[in-house]
Specification:
With about 180 residues, this protein is of the alpha+beta class. The chain has two domains: about 120 residues, no CATH class; about 40 residues, no CATH class. The chain has a five-stranded mixed β-sheet. A two-stranded antiparallel ribbon has the order 1-7. A hairpin with a 7-residue loop joins strand 2 and strand 3. The radius of gyration is 26 Å and the shape is elongated.
């Protein structure tokens, strides 16, 4: 997601540009994901403020039944991308820019990919579900309980936990 902001940088502070985004984004750990939305670029003293309102279609796996699903993630952020080259003189700027800062390269190209990746990771569901009432898998046989009951007998207790079951029976007897 590269944008040439050369014209915007040469304009005065407060100049803006609006762009509609429709395409794919891919990373090292994930396959291509559909992204759409809008971005606004606002010229600031130190660079360009990016306001993004994006939607990402991300392939995921249900955390209960392990079925594939498409998750839509809404990403909204404001980040300032700092210039690395003075737009008038072309001199390299070294004004103590933070290593974590988003930068505009020496050719005045602003790359949104890393910012979108970071905000996607922060916005993604930790345990995505295919639907809220998903029953998941049987812990004994692995049957998908959304497709029907399994043949496992419930109530069998692992011998290692039998002593705890006895404590529960003692407590119920006292009440």
């Amino acid at each position: 997601m590269l944008f040439n902001v050369s014209g915007l940088i040469h304009e005065g502070i407060g100049a803006t540009r609006h762009h509609a985004i429709e395409g794919t984004i891919s990373g090292e750990e994930r396959g291509p994901e559909q992204v759409s939305g809008e971005v606004e670029f606002l010229r600031t003293k130190a660079g360009v403020l990016v306001r993004a309102h994006l939607h990402l279609e991300e392939p995921e796996i249900c955390s209960r039944c392990l079925q594939p699903l498409q998750e839509t993630i809404g990403i909204d952020f404001e980040e300032e991308f700092r210039t690395t080259v003075d737009p008038q003189s072309g001199d390299v700027l070294d004004d103590g820019v933070d290593d974590e800062a988003f930068l505009i390269d020496e050719n005045h190209v602003l790359d949104l990919t890393e910012a979108v990746r970071q905000y996607r990771e922060a916005s993604a569901e930790m345990q995505p579900l295919c639907r809220p009432e998903c029953q998941g898998l049987c812990p004994r046989c692995g049957q998908d309980l959304n497709q029907g009951e399994c043949g496992c007998v419930l109530g069998q207790v692992d011998n290692r936990w039998a002593a705890l079951g006895g404590l529960l029976a003692d407590k119920e007897g006292k009440e």
